[in-house]
């Protein structure tokens, strides 16, 4: 019943998404005339390579998220530091663990070969993320296109605007609302943590030093004690470990499914920001309903929130440019 209500709510809101917001100028099939094979080229490349390297899916979708939260979805996260030495978004701590840049460069090169100067890096990132999620068993959604690439990328802006794993519910919601997203988007988009990995240092204070007192007795009480002990014993064995990686959704970190939400309810979300989702009544109700329901329900709401995220502060028309190489602005 809760699942049915969820789908209904989703359909109602979907009308709102199509009707407007910042991304109103994007449209499906934007490249139909100018580069008819663009979407197909991206899809083929992803379908050929992601099965051999499924962890790429996680990094692509995370890159898309980090892109959209800073200056909108304009591929600013893909830009290298300027030759003048100004550090770019890429150089900010949360982006140092992104890994898909070379992959995206290869996709972009193939698309450029077909239609030089037509398809933006921002669109390629949105399309490749969608296609990669599909390859690992996740949903398909139609990506409205027509984004243009930004010409500015500033490290400090990424530090200020990408939400931190230590955030509580209020701060997370403030961060998402600042981008036009709501509680439901926060809950569904966090579901991307059903895939991928984290480095120990993204959450070690929850294991060793939650209040600042320090030691194994100072773990975050909102994290399942048995899970925390296991992580301390087998994975993040010292408080300073910054190289070991941990599956965010143990047992199915390469599969797009609803087990992340079941983990949250067992108090096994890795970050405080994951645990925060069950501290708010409305968010917790959403978590409970998808945790129980068939994965199709999660897939639909996730897809809808991805479309909304992909519309954040996009550049269209005469704004920005179509970059020739995703790591540098056109001269
Ligand atoms: C709600 C706020 C969020 C916070 C605080 C957060 C934080 C993090 C952190 C700290 C990591 C681990 C980085 C590392 O140590 O290597 C991570 C990984 C990841 N995040 Fe999030 N995240 C959030 C939302 C999202 C959203 C909205 C998406 C996508 C829609 C996403 C997708 C991912 C994925 C797929 C990974 C795994 C990356 C990999 O395997 O390389 N996250 N996130």
Automatic annotation (TrEMBL):
Binding site for substrate: 163
Cofactor: Ca(2+); heme b
GO annotation, cellular component aspect: extracellular region; plant-type cell wall
Keywords: Calcium, Disulfide bond, Glycoprotein, Heme, Hydrogen peroxide, Iron, Metal-binding, Oxidoreductase, Peroxidase, Pyrrolidone carboxylic acid, Secreted, Signal
Pfam families tied to this protein: peroxidase
Cofactor binding comment, as recorded: Binds 2 calcium ions per subunit. Binds 1 heme b (iron(II)-protoporphyrin IX) group per subunit.
Residues spanning the signal sequence: 1-19
Disulfide bond sites: 35-115, 68-73, 121-326, 200-236
Gene3D superfamilies: 1.10.520.10, Peroxidase, domain 2
Reaction catalyzed: 2 a phenolic donor + H2O2 = 2 a phenolic radical donor + 2 H2O
GO molecular function: heme binding; lactoperoxidase activity; metal ion binding; peroxidase activity
Residues involved in Ca(2+) 2 binding: 194, 249, 257
Main location (coarse class): secreted
Active site per the UniProt annotation: 66 (proton acceptor)
Name of the protein in its database record: Peroxidase
UniProt organism field: Triticum aestivum
